[in-house]
Write a structure and sequence with these properties.
Length: 421
């Protein structure tokens, strides 16, 4: 019924279509490379979730468990010496919630921009909880058509459009001493306009500090872009610097299909079944482009899971390995209700392998525990404008190198992982 399943090869295995091994003969691994510019827009991500595995601990202990905590003094030192800090940190390291608090603790009035309304609101609520305050007292939020902030707010989370509107009233943004641009790798139109205007403001206000942060982006390009020192300046050197934070990552082996597939949804389903029948136990995260594709794959996999579960019930003794494991298929996309999205984070039974079918909402904003295998279809949905008909539309397009790196990194959070492309 499912047809012939795709075969995967390692990079360098007797196939001229794919890259060979490196000079040392080592299999390709992906550990926080930042070498290519990214253009990614998650049109299906209307929600933002960040899994917290230390939720049972006190908030202060949770803050100290985050990887960014050990870099606190380094971040503050670099901002004291340079005007712009390009901060590379993996999803879940704590840069979005902790860096604004570090800056506020040394006296800055901080503005933090987010590309989505849901991200700005959820982060503001989280930071307010960590500081033991009500939202709007010391930590404010301005997103969409709502604004919750008072005159004493030292940290304000807002969308990029709100900051652009504030520039009309105060072109030099004198009300802030530090501005944090988060998730800039998505490179939306609003993000690019904002970065161009902030560069002009940085030339006028030498005391304004900028933090440009993301999980994957072209760091060297941004460092050179925000270098506002000319040769005529008395102080030599650059006014911007790059800092990379190492998160919780493990080596990831990347496999490619031996030949292009005609239907990537069907190939994704076949790969899930192949992993379930042949690979050691571990959860699977599969990336698809839209809700329709996820529901199509969901129906096929649930039919397979029901047949597989019936076979296992009639066995008295399970064979060693993963054949005894049942399947639990969970969808995850932006328009899915909140209580159903939470199912992707719940830890299942011992002998149940969880398979998460997600759009690129799971690429940057989500850290799902237990993921060992990632299946990347290589596509996502991007908005584009057609000048011939004068209509803006959304179409399926190939992902960039940084998007592929980000997706592969979902597998290396807790143990060694594998990524099938």
């Amino acid at each position: 019924m499912l047809g012939q399943r795709p075969k995967f090869i390692r990079p360098g295995d007797d196939d001229p279509l794919y890259p060979t091994r490196n000079k040392d003969g080592v299999i390709e691994t992906l550990i926080n490379p930042n070498t290519d510019s990214a253009l990614a827009t998650d049109n299906d991500a209307r929600s933002n979730f960040v899994y917290n595995r230390h939720h049972h601990l006190p908030l202060e202990t949770q803050r100290q468990r985050l990887p960014v905590f050990q870099y606190r003094n380094h971040i503050l030192y670099l901002l004291e010496k340079y005007q712009t800090l390009v901060l590379i940190g993996e999803t879940g390291c704590g840069k979005s919630t902790q860096v604004p608090q570090y800056l506020h603790e040394i006296g800055h009035k901080v503005c933090v921009t987010q590309p989505r309304v849901a991200a700005a609101v959820s982060l503001a609520c989280r930071v307010a909880d960590e500081r033991g305050e009500r939202l709007g007292e010391r930590v404010g939020c301005a997103a969409g058509m709502t604004s919750t902030r008072g005159p004493d707010c030292g940290i304000v989370f807002m969308t990029e459009g709100v900051l652009l509107r504030e520039m009309f009233a105060s072109p030099l943004l004198m009300q802030y001493s530090c501005i944090v641009l988060d998730e800039v790798h998505e490179r939306s139109q609003m993000t690019d306009v904002l970065m161009g205007l902030l560069k002009k403001i940085a030339k006028k206000r030498k005391n304004l500090k900028l933090v440009v942060s993301s999980a994957t982006m072209d760091a060297e390009f941004l460092r050179d872009f925000f270098n506002v020192r000319d040769k005529k300046d008395s102080e030599p050197g650059s006014s911007s610097v790059i800092m990379s934070m190492q998160g919780r990552t493990h080596p990831i082996e990347v496999y490619y299909s031996a030949e292009p597939v005609a239907d990537y949804v069907k190939a994704t389903v076949d790969t899930v079944i192949k992993i379930h029948e042949n690979e050691p136990f571990g959860d699977v995260l599969a990336f698809l482009t839209s809700q329709e594709e996820i529901l199509e794959a969901l129906d096929t996999l649930r039919t397979y899971a029901e047949d597989n579960n019936q076979k296992n019930k009639h066995r008295r003794h399970f064979p060693s390995g993963v054949q005894a494991a049942n399947l639990n298929i969970v969808p995850m996309y932006g328009s899915l209700p909140h209580y159903k999205q939470i199912q992707a984070f719940q830890i299942g039974d011992k002998n149940v392998r969880k398979v998460v079918l997600a759009t690129n909402i799971a690429e940057t904003s989500v850290t799902i525990p237990g993921i060992v295998y990632v299946i990347d279809c290589g596509f996502h949905k991007l908005p584009h404008f057609s000048p011939d008909v004068g209509v803006a539309s959304i179409s399926v397009a190939p992902i960039s190198k940084n998007n592929a790196t980000q997706r592969a990194g979902r597998a290396g959070r807790t143990a060694r992982g594998k990524c099938y492309r």
